[in-house]
Amino acid sequence: MVNHQILLRTLQELGVSGSALCLLTSYLKDRTYRVTWRGSESDPCQLTTGVPQGSVLGPLLFSLYTNSLGSVISPHGFSYHCYTDDTQFILSFPRSETQVVARISACIADISQWMSAHHLKLNLDKTELLFLPEKDCPTLDLTINISTSVVSTTQTARNLGVILDNNLSFTANIAATTRCCRYTLYNIRKIRPQLTQKAMQLLVQALVTSRLDYCNSLLAGLPACAIRPLQLIQNAAARLVFNLPKFSHTTPLLRSLHWLPVTAIFHFKTLVLAYHAANGSGPSYIQDMVKLYTPARALRSASAKRLAAPSLRGGPKFPSAKTRGFDILAPKWWNELPIDIRTAESLHIFRGRLKTHLFRLHLE
């Protein structure tokens, strides 16, 4: 639980002072809680830990409370990423590295000590260790012993709802998504006679296509055979909206619903990010991955707003995990766009032209 005294001290260390600190102090102090059980109610107790559940400030205050965790992870040579109460740290090492287990154990031990000092608990039962081997690299035994718990490498690990596997093939994630969507479609089909077509479309978009869209840009560049289960789900959803039999042709249905096919959605999301990067409006970590193409001498292509494509000479054959990165796919797909789309004056115009282009490319 978030300790109020530690939180206020952390805010002061981050530079929060004066009326802002007084406002946050008054927000946290003098809060009480009661427990009600079967008509009986406990006496009010003073709340000295935790932040109000469901409040706008709750997630922000928790992120500030755990801000110093990064200073515990970094000295061990790990990169890290924090999202609310999820913390991931990443270590890249050569085959010759022999101290991997010791480094991970030391880092987890320091994190455990930091959490104890901040009135938090490291849940080792939910701690997962995923090893992503290089090509032809043997699998390593990275069993970590912490106190009475053992953390071993897993074949898959869940990250913000996405299932990652050690080959980055996303087979497990696609299987889980299709299984969930198929079950949802089965339940929606039961109430199909009670709903209008418009209501059915809204329901399918809210419960099925939204799940297909979640983090699906991670699947960009996968072979068609891997994506096919997701496309079959989208086809089934379109038929359900129009109440058509199983083998009805879906191309006119997708066009009528203004639904891009699954593969086209990958292109759309990747290219929108590329537009932000090319125009300097995206986050820095996206802009750092792509650069505008600058010819060595004056050429007409200089005004075509092309992106510099990285060289793949001597690299792995497509579509390996390395060649499915944003820095590879974004320039490739961007440079294939017609010039009037690449040079669109605004994001709104770009999105409209891009969607029309992808519709023509995939549904005609």
From TrEMBL:
InterPro entries linked: DNA/RNA_pol_sf, RT_dom
**Domain of life from the UniProt record:** Eukaryota
What SUPFAM superfamilies does the record tag this protein with?
DNA/RNA polymerases
Residues of the Reverse transcriptase domain: 1-144
Return the protein name: Reverse transcriptase domain-containing protein
